[in-house]
Amino acid sequence: MILSLAAAALAAAQAAAPQPFADAAAPPAAETRTDRAEVPATSGGWTLVVHGGAGTIRRDRITAEQDAAYRAAIDAALIAGQAVLAKGGSALDAVQAAVELMEDDPLFNAGRGAVFTHDRTNELDAAIMDGRTRAAGAVARLTTSRHPVAAARAVLRDGRHVMLTGTDADRFAAERGVEQMDPAWFATSHRREQIDEFLRREAGAKTVSSYDIDQKFGTVGAVARDTHGNLAAATSTGGLTGKRWGRIGDAPIVGAGTYADDRACAVSATGAGEYFIRVGVAHEICARVRLAGQSLQEAADAVMAEVLALGGSGGVIVAGPDGGSAFSFNTEGMYRGRMTSAGVHEVAIYNDE
């Protein structure tokens, strides 16, 4: 769906929402469909693609107000990244700008509005990667950094490591100017209700699915190609409702949930993280493009089919060095959008858009 939301739409009421995945089993695979709306190359221009998670996202489960709020939020993220790219800024800065906006939006399971762990805390993960140099930064289990993607960018800039975790990662970020918040700032009443429901179900059953609580994976991400021909990818998440034992999903794992290589493509994923790690989804898509000569859509569809065959579900957004882009998801919907310097401006939610 081509959509240019007016500025007023950006103030649409935000309804509670976000993510999870089954600790015990993957969400029902139902009828699988990959999105075929590949956008062709835009030589010399810029491209930006964003997502706000995939899952059982159907019109009969979302009110008109929620639909409008999600579309406005995705469009706002596009506008934030576009403001960077249209001025000749870097793909790296653009994906960070887009993701930071979504991290502040409690609609999504990233930053403020992240899901609760089994211990009723919020633990945040993120990664960012530069396709030109293949430099990357990742963080996991943050509890105070307002923008986990900014903390990941600080790791990338520092260059000595790729991933930092826990309180030490928050301290590292703070020392480099990343804004710190009281842990309570990330919590929302909607997420408290979700963890309460999760723990109630757990108390009455041997196993309980995180996915059953919210019916979607609320991870956020962005990929971009700038006017210099460089690619970048960024992904941020709060993980799974009820996660425990220090669980870390695919979002901050370079090559699984996030990857960028100017020779191939940039990828950000959302879905059942354990399966995306096992397949190495983001790198596998780029490898198929670079080494097998597949198109962005062919590669994305093939890898998502691998995920499904193992029992996982979710989706990916992809951008190529020629400015082309693609979505692929095997769920009933994915919050997604893209803009290009050639005038493409799309926001969509359901799998028939």
TrEMBL record:
Listed InterPro entries: Ntn_hydrolases_N, Peptidase_T2
Q: Site feature Cleavage: at which residues? A: G218, T219
What does UniProt list as catalytic? Answer: T219
Q: Which Pfam families match?
A: Asparaginase_2 (PF01112)
- Origin superkingdom: Bacteria
Locations of Low complexity compositional bias?
Answer: 21-30
* Keyword terms of this UniProt record: Autocatalytic cleavage, Hydrolase, Protease, Signal
Name of the protein this chain belongs to: Isoaspartyl peptidase
The cross-references to CDD domains, in alphabetical order and at most eight, read: Asparaginase_2
Any GO MF annotation of the entry: hydrolase activity, acting on carbon-nitrogen (but not peptide) bonds, in linear amides
- Which GO annotations describe the biological process of this protein? proteolysis
Which residues are the signal sequence here? 1-22
**Which residues make up the binding site for substrate?**
R247, I248, G249, D250, T270, G271, A272, G273
Q: Which organism is it from?
A: Sphingopyxis alaskensis (strain DSM 13593 / LMG 18877 / RB2256)
State the residue spans of region: Disordered. Answer: 21-41
